[in-house]
Amino acid sequence: MGKIYMVGSQKGGVGKTTTTLNLAYFLQKMGKKVLAVDFDSQANLTACFGIENTGELENTIGHLMMAEMEDAKLPAPKRYIRTKEGIDFIPASIYLSVVDAKLRLEMGAEKMLSGILEPLREKYDYILIDTCPSLGTLTINALAAADDVIITVNPQLLAMMGMQDFLKTVMKIKRRINPKLEIAGILLTMCDTRTKLCKVLTEQVEDCFQGQVRIFETRIPNTVKVGESIYYSMPVGQYSLKSSASIAYWKFTKELIADEG
Predict the structure, then answer these.
(1) At what angle do helices 224-231 and 244-257 cross, to 10 degrees?
(2) CA-CA distance, 55 to 61, in Å (whole number)?
């Protein structure tokens, strides 16, 4: 049975999509069977897999969610699961925003994504969910479906604000909806260790959460190679294997799964 990781944060621009993409890449390089799910209406992860006109897609996670809400039969996985460089993925589009609005009025809305992903567990070692920067119905769906949450944090003041709110939401979902849910840890991204602010805020995270929530030892550096790799629709490990970001994501992947049986 595959393990489901949600990559989340209340803030945008903290490396959720980049982390999802590169974690999927390095897990696949380890010989793992991986499914990445784009669960953000901005469809950034879908674009990272090389799909430009996301609005023209017919079988996206949004369409699957709508079918789930309407108790319709889901299409066969081969119709909505795509593959690039050995990584399977379910794309998203702006249609997911329509689903988001409808979810607010739906009975049992928080379990829709879980209903889609649970039957896929047996086919994969890992399912990774890239989420939107909010605490709305889509994020709640992702938390209800996940086993573990990877919280990405950019050590800048505004990016770190709201961390407590996100953690409280995770704990509420654990108590009320998904008792198996755990926090895998906090991953610090876009770290520029040369700046004093980065060092101070990193220390603040460690002071606030050490002993309560795991803080991954790996830090993802702020490097131009990440932006370049995204531009060319590649994981940074594929674009520049020896870059500092590639090495960091490789280390993070090993650190993440090191404690698994």
Answers:
(1) 90
(2) 12
**Looking at residue 119, what DSSP letter applies?**
G
Distances (CA, A) of 123 to 35, 79, 90, 126: 9, 16, 14, 9
**Beta-strand runs (E) in the chain:** 3-8, 34-39, 82-84, 87-90, 126-131, 148-153, 182-191, 215-221
> To which residue do tokens 């889609």 refer?
116
Q: What is the mean pLDDT of residues 29-35?
A: 96
The structure tokens listed for 81 are 């699961």
Number of residues in the chain: 261
> For residue 235, what pLDDT band results from cuts at 50, 70 and 90?
very high
> Binning pLDDT at 50, 70 and 90, where does residue 199 land?
confident
Provide the pLDDT confidence category of residue 160 given band limits of 50, 70 and 90.
low
Stated pTM of the model:
0.93
Rg (CA), the chain: 17
Q: How do 87-90 and 82-84 pair as beta strands?
A: antiparallel
Question: Confidence band (pLDDT; 50, 70, 90) for 157?
Answer: low
CA angle 202–207–209, rounded 5-degree value = 95
Picking from 217, 242, 215, 218, the residue whose alpha carbon sits closest to that of residue 229 is: 242
